[in-house]
């Protein structure tokens, strides 16, 4: 595997200030597998981070059935960070336990409230990404701060 120059690894979650694994009770420090990647917040980062997520899922031996949901969630969350945050970077952190996979996307841009929401049945593009993520996830939480947004989606591993 060759290095991608604009990507750099993120430290393990256990070493990140403010990381709290308690929202996922099936994850203990000894059992958790964690990997992350930080890249420039550009359109090119979406497929790169999708490949990273797929590669980690395969490396960890996660069930093949997780691929579609994982790739969709990564695409939506990273795409939102690239499109709406205005920040220079986007980070993806994956944390797998026995029965769940946490997908965390963090940006360091400024929160921009949504102007409007598409009406039901409206053919307009956009505005449905977090609804799609919520449909794929056991739970999805959005944490907004003045210095960025962190979204965590928890996917079932079917265990």
Automatic annotation (TrEMBL):
GO molecular function, one term: ATP binding
InterPro entries: Anti-sigma-factor_SerPK, HATPase_C_sf, HATPase_dom
Membrane-spanning ranges: none
Pfam family name, one: HATPase_c_2
Superkingdom of the source species: Bacteria
Residue span, Histidine kinase/HSP90-like ATPase domain: 40-152
Keywords: ATP-binding, Kinase, Nucleotide-binding, Serine/threonine-protein kinase, Transferase
Protein's UniProt name: ATP-binding protein
Species the sequence originates in: Streptomyces wedmorensis
